[in-house]
Fold this protein.
Amino acid sequence: MATKRKPYIREVNAGWWKKLPFYRDYMLREGTSVFAVWVSVVLLVALLSPDTFMSLVKNPLVIILNLAAFLASLLHTKTWYALVPKILNLPEAILKRLVQTLWGLTIGVSVVVLALAAASY
Amino acid sequence: MDEKRTCEPIFWALFGAGGMLTAICAPIFILVLLLIPAFVGSGEPAFINCSLLGRLFLFVFISLSAWCGLHRIVHTLHDLRIHWSLAPLVCYGSALLITLLAFAGALIRC
Amino acid sequence: MADTKTMTIKISRYNPEKDGEPHLELYTIPWSEKTVLLDALQYIKDNLSPDLSFRSSCRMTICGSCGVMINGVPKLACKAPLREYQEGLTVEPLANFPIERDLVVDLTHFMEYIQALKPYILGNIRRPSDGPNKQTPEEIAKYHKYSMCINCGLCYAACPQFGLNPKFLGPAAITLGRRYNLDSRDKGKSERMEKINSENGVWGCTLVGYCSEVCPKHVDPAAALQQCKVDSALEFAASVLNCKKKEASHGNKA
């Protein structure tokens, strides 16, 4: 007997992530990776050629990119800590304390780095 | 069903390590190492001349930040339906190159 | 009932014998504060369009049959009060699955993947005469959340990775695998890990996280999958070390 089935398949196109705010946030989160690579490359230049680096960081376009990278890194930190509990099969209360500890660590490290930097300028 | 094992765990581990380290350090590093030197000081920034330990830490940061970012880019290309078979080779190759250059850079001036 | 409120909703219709592609049709239905979408669908079938096809059974978020997309979001029709959609309501079949007819989708992939992960106790040699296989509350707590799945498929409709690659085993199936891997009575982890370790296993996941958002039972598949990645990565490391050991022992013999 001939089948009368004719399943209709909806194609997923490259713009699927524009459909829901949740997907847009995901793409924004993944998009921070471009700036992670950018920061990595600029700091690599600092290690290999400090003179080039100093003229590079004073370039207005680079300043704008670095500012964007700063915002992207904050978004990365926020989204990363929101997802860290997923990899651990532990009670809710412990996970909450872990995330608080991570934020505390981040603030602590930032204060120490800032103090070291202030001493060296 | 395809049950071929992948090398993904290696890249995922590097991505995880990079993601964690950059979550802790990246905001303050960008502020102190990239944004403040744009307006304050001239000549070599102090952190370049810091201890070997400091330079090695910078190497680890540069390397893991690259592995983390480029791993995400490989997957984002797939998400955007950009089917480029060389993408993993190029991205992970770049991360490896950055790692090697950063390692050389960290040791070269000691 | 002079003050009966009415609402016009859009429903995706597709008749495989006549239509080339799905289209939206408008239906005006009476509703009250207590009406859920499933009531509205049944009203339409009874009064307006007897040929409307949709799945449903329990009407109380237990069976997981009535999953649909409401304004692009995967929901159970029995758990969607119309009062929350007064600004407009469009009903479509679950995303990422082939449409059979109207709101009915083909869940074959989903069912096959659940089967592939063997979501039942394996390798336990206890007999009924051994008495009940007791577990401590701590042992139950490890997997309890992941055992709440009702196989509704909303997480597959929410998962862009399943949409992009239908070979991806997906959230619910891998979560069920994880549920049994965590069970102290089960001995089948290595069998399931073969599936989980593969490219279309857990490594197809990029932690979008929307699966956990839409799950009507708060199972949190995204968490289960990330934990499977840790398991899989550890197994990968162990297998690399094992290879070296084997090579070394071969070397010793020679």
Q: What stands out?
A: Residues 100 and 108 of chain A are 12 Å apart (CA to CA).
